[in-house]
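Notes from the 1:1 (GR / supervisor)

We went over the backlog. Supervisor wanted to see one worked example end to end before approving the batch request, so GR pasted a single chain during the call. The sequence is below; no edits were made to it. Supervisor asked that the structure be written out right there so they could see what the output format looks like.
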Amino acid sequence: MNRESSMLHTLQSTSNPTLEEIARLGAERMLAMALEAEIQAFIEQYSSIRNAQGKAAVIRNGYLPERTITTSAGPISVKVPRSRSTVKNLKPFVSALIPKYMRKSLSIEEALPLFYLGGLSNNDFVPAFEKLFGELPAEFSSASVTRMKQLWLEEHKNWSKRDLSLSRYAYLWADGIHFNLRLDEGRLCVLVLIGATPEGNKELVAVCGGYRESTESWLEVLRDLKERNMASPNLCIGDGALGFWKAVREVYPEAEHQRCWVHKTANVLDKLPKSVQPSAKSLIHDIYRAETEKDTRTAYQRFQDRYQPKYPKAVENLMKDEASLFTFYQYPGIHRLGDVPGNYVGELHPTVFRIEFAAERQMEIFERELMKLRLIHESAVSRCKVFGAFSDFSLHSRHKKNHLIHYHKMI
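Structure output shown during the call:
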């Protein structure tokens, strides 16, 4: 099992992982990439030196045995690369990030978030690592920090261009994460898509920068996915932002639409006084948590009857999206017990992402933050509960409502 598979397995097997656990596993992955960049810089330092046979003076020589560093955030597994010298008097590679006998870090609780989530500049990295390791070796320089960042960004670019011809998504959640940052073109936001495969797994599909969740921004994202051969999802789930739905109709017209009940609930409650909101929220839960569509329609009518006389605006807000409020009842009943109709993307990002921008370097930093956000979301998605797989669910067929609960058997 490689490091990536091991990380995903660990996340999936953890029932309720904390942010610290997600960050720890993500940092483990980033640290492995940083160590690769570090030894590559070491080898290039001696690239002009050859031995008597014309071979490189320094070559790769596998890895030291894997060891675990105990930290206040939990154990981190480390495999440090190893070099071999083919000429005399050349010292082997010694990592500046992971000293030879390092087994425990007392200050990583402060430094790890800086390293992984803090968006450090080159000048900030050295103080952060001094917190981890004390006085740094001479080999640790701003050049090695630059190399690490380039490696991480390159990995993100490759991920953003990956082929999707083998990817199939039964469900696709969409949401936008907004920032106060404004450029000449408008307010920036990050557009996020998460998919559920027919096998029951959830995957991060896209993380892209855009403006105000506009139709143009979503069109760019969806067209890019289609150009990379992603087939149409069966059901798209999102809030009431018109930009996404217009874009979906143009790029994936065969996909069905489901309004997010988390957003819908918040919008309806906003039209009611606080004293009424608890009881109204309970009634809304009865609507979209009902076992059958018949029960849902009954609860839906009950809400209208109760609140129409005094609070018509709340009822109007609920009813205006009726055509896309109950689509998920055409899909396997077991999935409705989970989060198919909910704001799955929005539940992931509020506690795991904080961003600060230097005005003169806004777009450069924004690109870096997209990379970090993608890694965090990827880890969070991989550890969330997995749907039952579809045993008889065609990716391009609709299902009759009277077959929903009993006909769809789950593997």
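Supervisor's comment: Residues 171-404 form one domain.
Batch request approved.
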